[in-house]
Design a protein that fits this description.
By secondary structure, the protein is α/β, with parallel strands linked by helices. It has 2 domains: 6-250, TIM Barrel, CATH 3.20.20.70; 264-331. It has 15 helices and 9 strands. It has helices at 26-35, 51-54, 57-63, 71-80, 93-106, 121-124, 136-149, 167-175, 200-212, 227-237, 247-250, 264-282, 292-298, 305-313, 318-331; strands at 14-17, 43-45, 49-50, 83-89, 111-116, 154-159, 181-185, 217-221, 241-244. An 8-stranded parallel β-barrel has the order 1-2-4-5-6-7-8-9, surrounded by 5 helices. Helix 8 links the parallel strand 6 and strand 7. Helix 1 (26-35) packs parallel to helix 4 (71-80), helix 8 (167-175) runs parallel beside helix 9 and helix 12 (264-282) packs antiparallel against helix 15. The chain starts with 13 loop residues before the first strand and ends with a helix. The structure holds flavin mononucleotide. Residues 18-21, 23, 47-48, 87, 115, 117-118, 157, 185, 193, 221-224, 244-247 line the site of flavin mononucleotide (FMN).
Length: 334
C-alpha cells in the first residue's frame, strides 16, 4: 500500500509547532489546535522519542507516552487537516528500521522526523541528535533504514553545525538523501539556544535546495516571536515553512486568527481545560509539576496574575489547582 506524501500538498508558507520535550504532548497539541486558525498552523510534531526505547517491549513502556495521541486530538487533526509527525532519535540504523516499522504498524502518524539537532550533552555523548551533524555515511544509512522500515515520508530537523556553521556541506549532503523536508534551526550545537538564531543560514539552505534538489522543503526555525515575524522571515529567506518553538510560551494563541486577543476568562478557561485534560490523560503517570511550566503562559498580563501564579505553583494536583482558579474567578472584580 502506498502512503500519500502530504509534504507535496503543503503550500508555502506553512507553519509548524516545534517538537518540545515535556511540552508538545497530546494534551498541549490539542489545546494549541483548538485555538488555531487552520490557515495558520499546518504541522505538529511529537516529543522526541528514542528508537532504542521503541525497539524493546520494556523500553516501549517507558517511551510510548511520547507517541500517545488522544482520540480528541485525532478528531481535531481530521477536522483541521493539520498533519502530525512522530519525531525519533538514536544512532543505530537497525534500531531506526525497527522503530519506523513499529510506528507504521501501531500508529497513524503522517510522517517520521529524525532529530539531528538536540545539543544536550547526555544525548550527544550517545552519538545521536546533533552529534550526527557531518556524519554523512551514518546519516545516509539512518535515513535509508527509516525509509525501509515504513512508507511514511521522512524529514530531518537539524542545526547548522557543531562549533561553526557547516551549512554548505551538511545541507548539501542532506539534499542528496531521499527525504521530504529539512528543518534548519539556525544555530550551531555550541550556541544551544542562547545566542540569536542566524537566519542567513536558512537563506543559504534555501539557495542550496534551489540548486540541488527542488523537491525538498526547507523550514526555518529559531526565535520566531509571532506569526507576522514568521512571515517576515519567509520574505527574507524564501523558506517554505516556519517552525515555532518557545514563541508558543509567550502566546498559546500564537496561531489564532489575526487580531485575536484572549480575555481573562478565556485564559482561565484554557488553563482549566489544560489541567483537566492533563490529569485525564496522564493520571499519576506523568508528574503534576511538569504542568507548572505552563502556568505562566496563561496567567500573565492581568491584575493579580503574579499572585495567582504563585498560588498555583504551590498546588500538588489537579483538584487543588482547579480550586485556586475557581476561587480567583469568584472573587475577581467584574
Ligand atoms: C522545552 C524544550 C524542549 C525541546 N524538545 C525538543 C525535542 O523533543 N525535539 C526537537 O527536535 N527539538 C526540541 N527542542 C528544540 C525546539 O524544537 C526548537 O528547535 C528550539 O526551541 C528553537 O526554536 P525557538 O527559538 O522557536 O524556540 C526543544 C526546545 C525546548 C525549549
Amino acid at each position: 500500500m502506498s502512503v500519500k506524501n502530504f509534504w507535496h500538498t503543503l503550500s508555502a508558507p506553512f507553519f509548524a509547532l516545534a517538537p518540545m520535550e515535556d511540552v508538545t504532548d497530546t494534551v498541549f497539541r490539542e489545546l494549541v489546535l483548538s485555538t488555531a486558525n487552520p490557515y495558520k498552523l499546518q504541522l505538529l510534531f511529537t516529543e522526541f522519542t528514542s528508537v532504542e526505547g521503541l525497539c524493546h517491549p520494556k523500553g516501549r513502556e517507558a517511551v510510548a507516552h511520547r507517541l500517545r495521541v488522544n482520540e480528541s486530538e485525532s478528531d481535531l487533526l481530521k477536522q483541521t487537516g493539520v498533519k502530525l509527525i512522530a519525531q525519533i532519535w538514536g544512532s543505530d540504523p537497525e534500531k531506526y528500521f525497527e522503530a519506523a516499522r513499529f510506528i507504521a504498524e501501531n500508529y497513524s502518524f503522517d510522517g517520521i522526523d529524525i532529530n539531528m539537532g538536540c545539543p544536550v550533552d547526555k544525548i550527544v555523548k550517545q552519538g545521536a541528535c546533533s552529534a550526527l551533524i557531518g556524519q554523512h555515511n551514518l546519516v545516509t544509512e539512518i535515513v535509508e533504514a527509516t525509509r525501509q522500515g515504513s512508507q511514511l515520508p521522512v524529514s530531518i530537523k537539524t542545526r547548522t553545525g557543531i562549533k561553526q556553521h557547516q551549512t554548505q556541506p551538511w545541507i548539501t549532503h542532506l539534499l542528496s538523501l531521499n527525504i521530504s523536508a529539512i528543518t534548519l534551526h539556525a544555530r550551531t550545537q555550541k550556541m544551544l539556544s542562547l545566542k540569536p538564531a542566524e537566519w542567513e543560514q536558512v537563506a543559504l539552505a534555501v539557495s542550496l535546495r534551489n540548486e540541488l534538489n527542488e523537491h525538498i522543503k526547507i523550514i526555518g526555525n529559531g526565535d520566531i516571536e509571532n506569526y507576522e515575524h514568521g512571515l517576515q522571515r519567509v520574505a527574507e529567506t524564501a523558506a517554505d515553512g516556519i517552525m515555532v518553538g518557545r514563541g508558543i510560551f509567550a502566546n498559546p494563541w500564537f496561531f489564532a486568527s489575526d487580531g485575536f486577543v484572549p480575555s481573562l476568562n478565556q485564559k482561565l478557561d484554557l488553563l482549566e481545560k489544560h489541567i483537566r485534560l492533563y490529569a485525564k490523560t496522564w493520571g499519576q503517570s506523568r508528574n503534576f509539576s511538569i504542568l507548572k511550566r505552563f502556568f505562566k503562559i496563561y496567567i500573565s498580563d492581568f491584575t493579580g496574575a503574579a499572585a495567582l501564579r504563585n498560588e498555583l505553583m504551590q498546588c500538588n494536583d489537579k483538584d487543588q489547582a482547579i480550586a485556586v482558579i475557581h476561587y480567583f474567578r469568584d472573587t475577581m472584580p467584574d
